[in-house]
Write a sequence for this structure.
């Protein structure tokens, strides 16, 4: 999952730094992630993992770092399995 997130971030994030140089807990907004790019990333994640982000997870915190994105995607997948 981490590799897929990093690939999508590299492709859609428009970051001025190399994604492979970022720690999992690095602040993506400090690294240059824009609001527009976070929406593009969300759409890419939805396609890649066959999920849909609920409104309550559409916030800056969910996309703050690679680790946060991974935790958010895992939460959505876990919720889908319960439903």
């Amino acid at each position: 999952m981490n590799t897929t997130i990093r690939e999508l971030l590299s492709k859609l994030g428009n970051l001025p730094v190399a994604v492979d140089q970022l720690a999992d807990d690095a602040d993506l907004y400090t690294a240059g992630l824009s609001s527009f790019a976070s929406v593009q990333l969300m759409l890419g994640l939805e396609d890649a993992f066959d999920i849909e982000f609920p409104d309550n997870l559409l916030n800056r915190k969910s996309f703050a770092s690679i680790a946060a994105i991974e935790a958010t995607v895992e939460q959505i997948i876990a919720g889908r399995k319960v439903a």
The chain has a mean pLDDT of 95. The first helix runs from residue 2 to 12.
